[in-house]
Amino acid sequence: MKKTIRDFDLKDKKVIIRVDFNVPIKDGLITDDNRVVESLETINYAINNSAKVILMSHLGRVKEESDKAKNTLKLVSLRLSELLNKEVIFIPQTRGIELEKAISNLKSGDVLLMENTRYEDLDGEKESNNDLELAKYWANLGDIYINDAFGTSHRSHASNVGLASLLPNGVGFLIEKELKVLASSIDNPIRPLTVILGGAKVSDKIGVIKNLVNKADYILIGGGMAFTFLKAQGIEVGKSLVDLDNLDFCREMLEKHEDKLILPIDVIASHEMSDNSDYRETFITDLKSDEMGLDIGSQTIKVFKQYLVDSQTIIWNGPVGAFEYSNFANGTKALCEILANLEAITILGGGDTASAAINFGYKEAFTHISTGGGASLELLEGKTLSGIDIIHNK
Ligand code: ADP
Ligand code: MG
Predict the structure, then answer these.
(1) Catalytic site residue 382?
(2) How far is the CA of 354 from the centre of ligand 2 (A)?
(3) Whose CA is nearest to atom 7 of ligand 1?
(4) Which of 92, 252, 330, 351 is the residue whose CA sits 20 to 30 A from 80?
């Protein structure tokens, strides 16, 4: 068990909390503040326990000077202030006199947010390369380090691994929840455990398949990925997405785990991926040579449902259709609806899967929607996450 923020006396301490405020911004507006909302519990806990709260986060990538303006955390500080209903002191620096003064002037219960940690990447990628001098400088600004940035916990950066190696440390409530729900459901599931795997390419998910095929009772395969498996079975899949390099891998998986891997029996077929394209539902064996499968069909949804209603734990990564297009969103929506009505533990991991479910109105319908894209994928692959690994155990 990792130490958590609860294990520290925070009173009057300068507590550095690494949060994940890497939110999408379009035309000067935050289009989804979920990550800010998800960090409130830890920040409020620190405020209520009279800490002097110092927040750090990255936002986007900063490769050249002109990336700075579009990736400032200023907007996030305003949104955070609204959500906390409290002043947030924003310092447009990642180091320097102004920042140091503001920190030494903090009173217990105050909240300060410093500028995007990746501004430091302009100078030799110091943040992203976990530069020791930078980590030491930041560590001198605080007394305790709390990592709650699940979305970056698979990276080894100065603001997570670097700081944790230099200060007393623990995880925040968000990472604690991600570990409790996602990690423990993979390693110690209440069975039957059924995994829904979708998304575009097999190659993106090889690690996930290899790890989960030994842990899950069933794996329901949809999305573009299904067609490489179907082709490996000798089925003609037309113009559907096929990952020729991984045909052998799929064949081998099917031979070894025939009873575990469940493939679509029908699909929504079309000539193109667009909102206006003509489409038809067809059995997988009747797909024409100029058609591609872009969603699972109604018979497949029924088959998948039979497995899902008998499951105690369901982990879902990867949309089962090209859900961005209204014509091919039905399968993903239908699975959301099925999961929403089950008593089972239901967990979503993966950036696109989470945004699909949230956009379709199912944000509250699952036991847990993981906030990490890459990080949750690496947990599904059975990897340890460096930003969490370095946190001390109790
Ligand atoms: P996640 O981010 O949740 O891990 P992925 O990035 O692996 O998910 O997959 C999402 C992408 O998969 C979406 O852009 C979606 O359009 C695509 N996709 C799903 N089904 C198909 C399909 N049948 N053909 C082509 N692309 C598909
Ligand atoms: Mg994705």
Answers:
(1) no
(2) 9
(3) 199
(4) 351
Domain range for residue 204? 189-380
Count of domains for the chain: 2
Q: Kindly state whether residues 160 and 201 are assigned to the same domain.
A: no
Of 323, 324, 348, 371, the one to substitute when testing ligand 1's pocket (max ligand atoms within 8 A of C-beta) is 323
Residue 380 has pLDDT above 90, yes or no: yes
Residues 207 and 236 in one domain: yes
Residue 209 — very low, low, confident or very high, per pLDDT cuts 50/70/90?
very high
6 is catalytic: no
The answer to whether residues 159 and 263 belong to one domain is no
Look at residue 314 and tell me whether its pLDDT is greater than 90: yes
Q: What integer pLDDT is reported at residue 287 of this predicted model?
A: 97
**H-run or E-run covering 197:** strand 193-197
Residue % of the chain over a pLDDT of 90: 94
Q: What does 45-69 look like in DSSP terms, one character per residue?
A: HHHHTT-EEEEE---S---STTHHH
Pair 164, 279 in one domain? no
Residues 238-262 have pLDDT tens digits of 999 999 999 999 999 999 999 999 9
35 has catalytic annotation: yes
Q: Which CATH number goes with the domain that contains 128?
A: 3.40.50.1260
Claim: this prediction has a pTM higher than 0.85:
yes
The residue among 116, 151, 174 that closes a domain is 174
Is 199 touching ligand 1 by the criterion CB < 6 Å?
A: yes
Q: What pLDDT was estimated at residue 58? A: 98
Domain assignment present for residue 182? The answer is: no
Name the residue of 352, 358, 370 to mutate for ligand 1: max ligand atoms within 8 A of Cβ.
Answer: 352
Are 78 and 221 found together in one domain? no
| Whether the CB of 321 sits within 6 Å of ligand 1 | yes
- CA neighbor of 154 nearest in space, from 178, 133, 135: 178
In a shared domain, residues 195 and 138: no
Name the pLDDT band for 372 (thresholds 50, 70, 90): confident
Which spans in the chain are helix H? 34-38, 40-48, 67-70, 74-84, 97-104, 132-139, 163-164, 173-178, 184-187, 202-212, 226-232, 247-256, 298-309, 330-340, 351-359, 374-380, 386-389
111 and 76, same structural domain?
Answer: yes
